[in-house]
Design a protein that fits this description.
single chain; mainly beta; 4-stranded antiparallel sheet; globular
């Protein structure tokens, strides 16, 4: 069992930055691929970014590539999402998630994730 707690959301102006954190409980954090997803009001939840167990490979949605950076610190059981050049279309609830078994493009699929955090709201004003 893994418990995930996100933090770092808030209100920011367009063009600004935020860094989200997701702290995981348990001793097996390094066994999980970690991902970030988001859900805007009235829309389906969508993939944002993922990072492999060692942190050696990252994946990004086209909409955030070049603006967002996912990273992890296995010693601190924490995954981060650095978000730069934010725009109003980035407004959403952001969720972190943990997957035991996804690999490659499979990590874009939310169905491949086993544990989810409660989400943190990010609001970007124009």
């Amino acid at each position: 069992q893994v418990q995930l707690v996100e933090s770092g959301g808030g209100l920011v102006q367009a063009g600004g930055s935020l860094r989200l954190s997701c702290a995981a409980s348990g001793r097996t954090f390094a066994s999980y691929v970690m991902g970030w997803f988001r859900q805007a009001a009235g829309k389906e939840r969508e993939f944002v970014a993922a990072i492999t167990k060692s942190g050696g490979t990252t994946y990004y949605a086209d909409s955030v590539k070049g603006r967002f950076t996912i990273s992890r610190d296995n010693a601190k059981n924490t995954v981060y999402l650095q978000m730069n050049s934010l725009n109003p279309e980035d407004t959403a609830v952001y969720y972190c998630a943990a997957s035991l078994g996804c690999s490659g493009y499979g990590c874009y699929d939310q169905m491949r994730y086993d544990y989810w955090g409660q989400g943190t709201q990010v609001t970007v004003s124009s």
